[in-house]
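Revision sheet: C-alpha cells.
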Amino acid sequence: MASHEYDPDDNFSHAFPRRIEADDEDALDVVAWQFLLLVNPDDEDAALQQFAAFRAALEEAGEGADPALLLRDTIDWKAGFHVGEEDAAGLMEALDELVSRWRQRIDWGIDDDAQEAPDTSALLQAAFVQLREQHYSLWTVETGEATLAGWITHERDEEAMQLVAGALGLSARPGVG
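Predicted:
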C-alpha cells in the first residue's frame, strides 16, 4: 500500500506528533487535552477542570517545565495515582478513589488479619484484571523513581492512549509495568 493511501485501520496514528516539544504550546495543549479526556472517561467537566489546573501550573513553572510531570501532579487522586513503590495502603486507597467515579470497587482479596503489607505488583495485577472485566484499562507509567504511577481509561481507548502518552514522552502501558 502506498503511503498516501487511506488506511481505515491506521488513520489515528498520524493525529499526534511522535513527541511534542515543550515550546510548541498549541501541540502541547492538544495532546494534554486528549490525555485528560482519556483519563477521565465520560467526564469532560473533570477533564476541563484539570486542563485549567494544568495550564496554570505550566504557566507558573515557566520554561523548562516537564509537561508530563505537571500532568501527573494535576491528575493525582482525581484521575491518576502516584504513590511510593512499597505503599500498598496508599495504592489501594488511590485506586479505590479512582474507581469510585464509576461506582466500581476492587476486591483486594486481603485478609484483615494479615501481618504483612501486600505486594504492590499483586495489587496492581488484581486491579487490572477486575477493571478489564468492566472494560477499563489500568495503566502504569515509568517514573524513574521508587514510585508507582498511572491512570485508568476505557479499554477501547488503549491505542489512543499509547499515541498520546508517547507524544508526552511517557513510557506507559496497560497493566503492571
